[in-house]
């Protein structure tokens, strides 16, 4: 008879193909979130669209993901994961295919094609957020924190690959032939669709043992986890979305250079933080790592917005990727460790919370830049800034409240965890 460590090793070997499919799934998730924004300027020129219209596509993306997170949680618990993770990849493939063919399918109003395509592939992206973490969490592993962090690192690698690959392919095909770039990327979800038809999945939690959603909502600890992932998502996505614009405004570099220099280096540090914790995370408490990351993000946001030296501000933008690397996956781990039998409903609430922060966070920074563009000019060493750069820095200054709130929610999380454990023992 096998000893327990030997049994655990055999079980983990059974799920190697599953874990690889989940990694590719998160890579595809990065594709569904970040490919279209790289083409917005091209869409504006080819289809005569406004900034508001292309910005609406981003809003539609996140809103659809939130709806998908909440809509599919109960069916997943009832019918199992496999039908829905394969559906997610099918939707991502069809949505990208429709995006590439929008000019052909909607010759009179191609913008309608862009919106329909966005809804379809974003629905797939929502299913990835809901299910990939749940799949990895259900696989026997000695370090759930490390496994979750490593899974989310593939979003960062996908982010980098999409930015670099799309930039290179647009140079090769030309901006007018962007649809070929989208068609090439659409192959990835199709490949992973077939992967998830055959890889083994861990057994689902029986209905009678599953934690009810009302028990989650009643827990103040879980409320802090949800609020934490909201501001964690805002911290990460706000900096990732505005770093490229900062490079353009402060260093007067072209957009392509801003994307490659700012976005890719930010994503590199994001991926490194997750990959390193994925490798060595069992040695360090995820709560402490998240708190340290929150403090680093506070410093990075303040330096990015208030430093008189643009290169130092850019370095702070890039380094914040390391600070926020664990805020999203760590929140998922904190929820799953406290409620291991919660099922898909818990992952749906967490995914919806992260998406809400990802949608609202960058918008609030942009709103601040519009409403109070001279906020940072109150600091004497920044009075000389051009209007555009001052507005962007003002938004980033307000954005520093996201990691401050993250640190506060982590403190409250620990407080309520101890309180609920005492109540349980009593």
What integer value in Å does the Rg equal?
21 Å
Contiguous helical run count: 20
The appropriate CATH architecture of the largest domain is Up-down Bundle
CATH topological fold name of the largest domain: Growth Hormone, Chain: A
Give the percentage of residues in beta strands.
Answer: under 5%
Low-confidence stretches: none
Largest sheet features? none
| Helix coverage percent | over 70%
Question: What is the fourth-level CATH superfamily of the largest domain?
Answer: MFS general substrate transporter like domains
How widely separated are the two ends?
40 Å
Total of domains: 2
CATH class of the largest domain: Mainly Alpha
Tell me how many strands there are: 0
Order of helices and strands: HHHHHHHHHHHHHHHHHHHH
What general form does the structure show?
globular
Average pLDDT confidence is 86
Classification by helices and strands: mainly alpha
Can you walk me through this structure?
α2 crosses α9. The chain is 82% helix and 0% strand. It has two domains: 204 residues, MFS general substrate transporter like domains (Growth Hormone, Chain: A); 222 residues, MFS general substrate transporter like domains (Growth Hormone, Chain: A), CATH 1.20.1250. The protein contains 20 helices and no strands. With 426 residues, the chain is an all-alpha fold.
Task: Describe how the helices and strands are arranged.
Layout: H1 4-14, H2 16-38, H3 40-47, H4 51-71, H5 73-79, H6 82-100, H7 102-105, H8 110-138, H9 144-173, H10 178-185, H11 187-198, H12 213-218, H13 220-251, H14 255-280, H15 286-306, H16 310-323, H17 327-338, H18 344-371, H19 387-399, H20 401-425
């Amino acid at each position: 008879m096998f000893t327990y460590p030997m049994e655990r090793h055999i079980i983990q070997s059974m799920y190697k193909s599953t874990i690889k499919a989940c990694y590719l799934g998160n890579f595809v998730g990065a594709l569904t979130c970040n490919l279209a924004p790289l083409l917005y300027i091209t869409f504006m020129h080819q289809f005569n669209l406004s900034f508001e219209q292309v910005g609406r596509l981003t809003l539609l993306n996140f809103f659809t993901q939130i709806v998908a997170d909440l809509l599919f949680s109960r069916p997943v618990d009832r019918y199992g994961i496999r039908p829905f993770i394969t559906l997610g990849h099918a939707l991502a493939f069809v949505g990208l295919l429709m995006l590439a063919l929008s000019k052909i399918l909607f010759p009179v109003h191609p913008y309608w094609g862009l919106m329909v395509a966005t809804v379809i592939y974003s629905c797939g992206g929502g299913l990835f957020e809901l299910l990939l973490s749940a799949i990895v969490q259900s696989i026997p592993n000695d370090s759930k924190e490390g496994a979750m962090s490593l899974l989310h690192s593939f979003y960062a690698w996908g982010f980098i690959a999409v930015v670099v690959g799309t930039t290179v392919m647009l140079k090769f095909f030309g901006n007018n032939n962007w649809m070929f770039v989208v068609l090439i990327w659409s192959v990835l979800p199709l490949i992973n669709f077939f992967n998830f038809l055959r890889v083994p999945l861990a057994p689902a939690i029986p209905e009678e043992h599953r934690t009810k959603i009302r028990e989650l909502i009643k827990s103040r600890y879980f409320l802090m986890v949800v609020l934490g992932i909201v501001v964690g998502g805002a911290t990460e996505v706000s900096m990732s979305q505005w770093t490229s614009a900062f490079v353009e405004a402060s260093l007067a570099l072209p957009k392509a250079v801003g994307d490659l220099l700012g976005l890719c280096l930010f994503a590199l540090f994001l991926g490194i933080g997750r990959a390193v914790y994925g490798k060595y995370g069992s040695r360090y408490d995820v709560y402490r790592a998240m708190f340290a990351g929150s403090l680093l993000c506070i410093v990075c946001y303040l330096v990015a917005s208030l430093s008189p030296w643009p290169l130092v501000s850019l370095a702070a933008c890039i380094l914040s990727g390391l600070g926020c690397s664990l805020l999203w996956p760590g929140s998922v781990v904190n929820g799953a460790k406290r409620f291991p039998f919660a099922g898909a409903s818990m992952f749906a609430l967490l995914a919806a919370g992260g998406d809400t922060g990802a949608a609202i966070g960058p918008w609030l920074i942009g709103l601040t830049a519009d409403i109070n563009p001279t906020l940072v000019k109150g600091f004497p060493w920044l009075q000389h800034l051009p209007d555009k750069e001052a507005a962007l820095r003002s938004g980033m200054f307000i954005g520093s409240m996201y990691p401050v709130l993250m640190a506060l929610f982590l403190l409250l999380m620990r407080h309520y965890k101890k309180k609920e454990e005492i109540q349980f023992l009593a």
